[in-house]
Amino acid sequence: MSLAAFGARHGRRPSPAFGLSAPATIFVLVALIGPLALMFRYSLNRFVPGQMMVEALTLANYAKFLADGYYQSVLATTLWVSALSTLLCLVAGFPVAYFLARQANEKWKGRLLLLVILPLLMGNAVRTAAWMVILGDKGLSNALIASVGIAPMKLMYTPTAVVIGLISVLLPFMIVTLQSVLEGIDANLEAASSSLGAGHLTTLWRVILPLALPGILAGTMLCFILSMNAYATPVLIGGPSFHMMAPTVYQQVAKAMNWPFGAALAFVLMAVTLVLTTIANVLVQRRYRRWSE
Amino acid sequence: MGIVAINRVYAALAAVIMAFVLLPLLVVVWVSFFANRILSFPATGYTFDWYVRAWEQDAFRNGFITSVETALIAVAISLALGVPASLALVRYRFPGRDTIQTLLLSPMVVPGIVGGAALFMAFIEIEVLFDVEIAGTLPGLLVAHGLIALPWTIRLVTASLTGMSPSYAEAAQSLGASGLTIFFRITLPIIKPGIVAAVLFSFVISFIDLEKSIFLVGPGRSTLQIALVSYLEWNLDSTVAAVATVQIIIIGALLLVSNRYARLSRAF
After folding, report:
1. B-chain residues within 8 Å CB-CB of A168?
2. Hey, is the C-beta of A42 within 8 angstroms of any chain B C-beta?
3. Residue A272 to chain B, least CA–CA distance (Å)
4. Would you call B85 and A20 a contact, using CB atoms and an 8 Å cutoff?
5. Distance from CA of A36 to the nearest CA of B (A)
6. Fewer CB within 10 Å, N or C, chain A?
């Protein structure tokens, strides 16, 4: 609706909508957008050890990221751990989501969904603590392994353990997202497909997956973004020699007090996530259009 | 394969994967009763001692109190700001509406660690400029947690407002009711389930936040989640399990209550 048409329809009275939405809008602008802008400005400043930071207009912090192999390896670790965790979440999440979506008994469906959401709302600290108990040297998994006579394994402080911890944190998000999308797909389409002679896997591949693609994309992006920014899991399960981006940002900003570089790292993390999710979005949407034609 | 067989395959897969999702919580509850002094399997006996010890730890007790306090006030902030904003978004078509909606939901999209770092820098900047203390204080934490709760409140309240027919409000208006009267006597009672769900859900989301708060806690004031993580960096014993179990019980209860009012899966 054009502004003129809007004014005409509402008799040129100022809409109460502005007054109603102004406090929340101002709050978000002041508490989020403003600080982000400030942080971006800081990322262009210069850091002199011993002093807080020096006013400057330099890309040195971004250049440092590009020049220092260590920080690139941190980003690389973050990327592959996130991609692997997300992929495994998709593979593991789909059967649960499909089962929930096709569950005819509403009461049971509600209960099962609660069981999915409960761990999701338990917080990363508690779930990470649990995985430390399970994967620790004297943990549950090693006790079980020992009871069948296999030598204990080093599980904690390995990338595998981090991926397991992350999957456990992210899987509920994937399940809930996929479930709501799968539920929107008419079960009659599956019946139609199978009455035309398609096996279940063919139906899955040719009917359900194409239709569920937007939801798959949404769930995948959510998990990827959350794992790119994971803090507790890499710090506690990964141990001191395992480095991912979010803990590094924290370390630079709060411990090393190198705000310009910490800010630059934060923006690199956000930019990489944004670029990758945008590319995925475009690719999937193009595919989706071709499929639905 | 017949339909029945396929459904059984899905049921079996779902059961295994759900077990994986729920396993951590079950293990934590179990371990919290272990009598072992050093955490190891199997249990040498069972005891309630860890719960007493957890409560005796200042970091956990104070962290718990700070977390509850922060979450309650964050809920109040997010309701005060979010309910009017939701009304505006659902009831009115106005220029810039989409932008404002995106903006109000953006705290969910901006990574916690990035938002937390930015807020921390802004607070320190204000502290230097005006000679006040914000980072590491309750008001500072409240700004962050208001930001965490706001988008979830808006989502749930918007959903319940969308489900309400505008004709009730129009009828009241034609009978001469003012905007405020309509809100408190008509709209609020009808969307009450959505409000209750929003309150409980944003309480939980604020309570479990780690990434945004980690920059904003100071000596003497920490949230429970941060206290848990810093404890876990050096120790692993059943004290943590006891704390976690209490959290599981509280959040589980809140979840059951809020699910009675609104389908929580709709919040995502």
Report:
1. 20-21, 23-24
2. yes
3. 12
4. yes
5. 5
6. C
B81 touches chain A (CB under 8 A): yes
Residue of B nearest to A28 (CA): B104
- Residue A171 confidence class, pLDDT cut points 50, 70, 90: very high
Residue of A nearest to B81 (CA): A24
- How close does chain A come to B15, measured CA to CA in Å? 8
CA distance B83 to B224: 28
Any idea which residue has 């008799």 for tokens? A11
Q: Which tokens is B96 given?
A: 């810039």
Query: CA of B109 to nearest chain A CA: how many angstroms apart?
Result: 9
Q: What is the rounded CA–CA span in Å between residue B137 and residue B77?
A: 17
On whether any CB of chain A is under 8 Å from the CB of B234, the answer is no
* Cα distance between residue B32 and residue B239, in whole Å: 7
pTM reported for the whole predicted model: 0.87
CB contact under 8 A, A39 and B40: no
Q: Which of A1, A125, A225 sits opposite B229 (nearest CB)?
A: A125
What letter represents residue A131's amino acid? W
Angle formed by the axes of helices B112-130 and A34-42, to 10°? 80
Complex confidence, ipTM: 0.89
pLDDT tens across A77-130, in order? 999 999 999 999 999 999 999 999 888 888 888 888 888 888 888 888 888 889
> What average pLDDT does chain B have?
87
Whether the CB of B94 is below 8 Å from some CB of chain A: the reply is: yes
